[in-house]
Amino acid sequence: MDKNQFLVSLFSIFLSSILTENYILSKFLGICPFLGVSKKLDTATGMSMAVIVVMFISTAVTFPIDQYLLKPYNMEYMQVVVFILIIASLVQLIETILKKSMPALYQALGIYLPLITTNCAVLGITQLVLTKNENYGQALVNAFGSGVGFLVAMVIFAGVRERTERNDFPKFMQGLPITLVSASLVAASFLGFAGMVDGMFGSVTLEAPKTSTIELSGSMQIIIPVVTVCVLGILFALILSVASTILAVPKDQKEEDIRAMLPGANCGACGFSGCDGYAAALAQGEAKPGLCAPGGAIVAKAIGDYLGVGGSADAQVAVVQCLGNDDNCTDKVVYEGISTCAAASLVSGGPTSCAYGCMGIGDCVNACQYDAIQVCNGAAVVDVTRCVGCTMCAQACPRHLIQMVPKKRQAVNRCSNCDKGAATTKVCKVGCIGCGKCAKVCPKEAITIENFNATVDPQKCVGCGLCTKECPRGCLTMMLVPKADTPANT
């Protein structure tokens, strides 16, 4: 292959890895960060830049190790173990460098930076380049192009998601359903590039790098792999140790003290990248003390007193706005598939007769770290004595049935159905029909009727209970907040 052909092959590989062989959109590698970190353009871009660096450096290190160590000794079966060791070490090294040189990006990436270690796209590129008969230079271009392809897919999808967030979709399509539909459309759009690269440059034939093999016999088949992993582990441990010493960031005692006050749930309800990010923002005066939902008023006051600014936070609890248990609402089909609400909601709008109702599979239960929510008789129920208001259950519900309300005595509409009354009564015995009787008797005008459904303003509601007595369907209930040692459900 002459120089011109080599350059053409590099450009062809680069374009292919971005467009026709995009690892996210064509091989579904890296789909977790693609769906999880693409809500905001700035976070998606920062994550993608880190992935580009990790992909490129990982390939630069793993390719020669495979060609000159693993293959010559017939140890290809060690690829996954060795490559994960290398990738994890490189991610830790990059994290150390970013924390020292680019603290703003480090804070923005937060918990997502260590998650690059488990990003299958990074491990995938280090292994797939070995199957393409590419030499070292071509493998590096492939890795860099794949990282750029990751960036392109993330930026495009982040723009799409920011646009969809501003649109008014039916309730059953909000959240994960419309996200997956949008992702499939973005992936399908890239099919338009199929054949473009070959059409521009023609078919490029790559010659496999030549390697000689050494046959190991007896105990050496065990000793050499063990020694290889140990040596690599010690080598990267030394590199990380030196890097952490040279690039050590002085600890902010204020940040450390505040971090110790936070509960460590890393739920993200505060709007920051976990408790570390929130503690850093508080220490720098960029956040208010009352944003930690799990910590509530106690943590807010402690942090406020420590910072000398005062702090308070109204305790909040989760409320499931659905009484569609097995006694009140039946299923239209028997669902047999992946046992998650998110998956069930994608099959004909879910198994329940009510398109807005609780499916009772328990995504919210799995998300709750405090055992504060359970599925009882086919519908989710919250124990207010255990709920800390972390919002994890609300984020997990694909139908957005779980709302956060102040922890006080108040009226709550336990129905989310927005259909007309006649349609609601056909699918649920206790569904809200939007009759408006509750709004008429409320002395504080705390209830309004929107989309054939009653909405209670918790700030105005004084818990008089008149609306619950007037409701003909029984979907308006009083939320009682007992003492912590008294078991009660909402």
From TrEMBL:
It is found in: Cell membrane; Endomembrane system. It is an enzyme of class 7 (translocase). Its EC number is 7.-.-.-. Binds 3 [4Fe-4S] clusters. CDD domains: MtMvhB_like. One of its GO terms (cellular component) is endomembrane system. Keywords: 4Fe-4S, Cell membrane, Electron transport, Iron, Iron-sulfur, Membrane, Metal-binding, Repeat, Translocase, Transmembrane, Transmembrane helix, Transport. Residues 1-244 are annotated as: Hydrophobic. The chain crosses the membrane at residues 46-65, 77-98, 110-130, 136-160, 180-202, 222-249. The complex is composed of six subunits: RnfA, RnfB, RnfC, RnfD, RnfE and RnfG. Part of a membrane-bound complex that couples electron transfer with translocation of ions across the membrane. This is Multifunctional fusion protein. It comes from Caproicibacterium argilliputei.
